[in-house]
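WARN no homologs supplied; continuing
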Amino acid sequence: MAVCWFLRADMVAEAPAVWGYLKAALRDGEIRIEEPHRANSLPVAGAVRPAPVPLSLKVVMVAAPRWYYSFFASDPEFQTYFKIKADIDADMESSAANVDAYSALIRDFAVADGAKGIEGDAIALLLGLASRWAANRGRLSSQFERINDVIVEAHQASGRKNANITRADILQALANHHSRVSRIPSRMLDSIAEETVLIETTGSAVGQVNALTVRYMGDTSFGMPSRVTARASVGRHGVVNIERDVALGGPIQQKGVMVLQGFLAGIFARRFPLSFNCSVTFEQSYGGVEGDSASLAELMAILSDLSGVPLRQDLAITGSVNQRGDAQAIGGANQKIAGFFRTCLSQGPLTGSQGVIIPVANERNVILLPEISDAVAAEKFHIHSVTSVDDAIELFTGQSAEKIYALVTTQLEAFDQALTKRAGGND
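OK structure emitted
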């Protein structure tokens, strides 16, 4: 029977010479003992050379997907020696069998760290955490090491020996972790509370909306609100993306704004051309902006400024939109919800009307943190889901989409007449 040998691809890549020797050994079915510094020199007459060692070996390379594609692209012989690819998923279906197996693994982790066991509600919390990491209610993350790290920290922080790990212990471990990695988001929340960064979580305003963004920083990510504003006037340029004009908008963000132009043209330019300028921007944003997850927010700001109808500031929205007005799924829904929830808390007690709007397609991705789940259950915070622009309009304005569209049409007709009169006067 051939021996099975596991290698880490990243370690092989750190020593390029090893790759050549490995291929030669697999090709010839033998290991030749050579001194690396003499490998390419002429043999010395009469020198003793060790006999090759027969080799019967199966090699398994283990690595992240990017290493597979790197080896595949850089060496045409790679597929000759490694014919079978097993692409292992980062998460698994949360079937009854998998949940049972995962729960048993969690119990083993607890006992291995010296605890007597782990309580059922603590296991349920950890399973919810695994779903949150997978960003899907129907999946469980296979990052078992991270689950084990939480269990170890919870047990060590409890200070109890030969006792069960409780839900409170897990919550404390998660709170400790958040405290360690939350320096930057905490400073950002301080800036909002001190009104250095302008974000409103009460009242209403015309042409202004709270969009939601996610920031990734190494091993952590967090969501934050960002104010999006729109200002409309007479003109022919349509939607003007300020981020694009100053080279701060990435290609996907620019595409999202251009999609808005298509939606507006489809709704309002059937009888007369779109005669308006409307600048759209992320206020107090001094870095690049990428992604189209704020396009629904940008559209709300545009429609509000054109109609003159104010938007609720106690709501924040995330979602992409297509040219037909359908709300499309986005990433980072959990971080975005948590970001606005903490922003609302930083400005005072929850009012009971505050909340976040997400696309219906993202409902399966929402796994709330315990404190947010408790606030939602108590109706102090709300998660709304929408299927279209029309749904979002009604939530933000309390008026039907048809009425808002009628007001926008009236304003656009006035802009068009102003341009027509000006053109006639010049003639």
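The mean pLDDT is 84.
OK
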